[in-house]
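A quick word before the example. In earlier lectures we treated sequence and structure as two separate objects. From today on, think of them as two lines of the same record. Here is Retrotransposon-like protein written that way.
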Amino acid sequence: DVIFLEDQTIEDFDKAEKQKLDARNYIDVVSKPPGGTFVNGGDVHVDDENVTDDHTSDHGEPELKRSSTEHQVSQRYPPHDYVTVTDNGEPEHYQEAIANVDKEKWLKA
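And the structure line, produced from the sequence above:
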């Protein structure tokens, strides 16, 4: 089943996706540090057990899903029919084109 959203375009979806990606790049400076508690004077006591290092996370390329279907070679013409397709077709070299009845057309080409 397909749902058409006539009042929206692809550009609308692209803008919304870009805004989501941009929002992920902002840092919340007001939030409490992970695993830390505020102490008088603004110092922070950090519990080493609960701290995770966000800088070591892997921001590399996302893993791509590969298709499980096997690649099939095109069989427009079976191999034994290639001779009949190319036989009496276009000239293979210049002398054959000049000797052809359609010499003028081959010269223009």
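Notice the following. Residues 82-108 form one domain. We will return to this example when we discuss secondary structure assignment.
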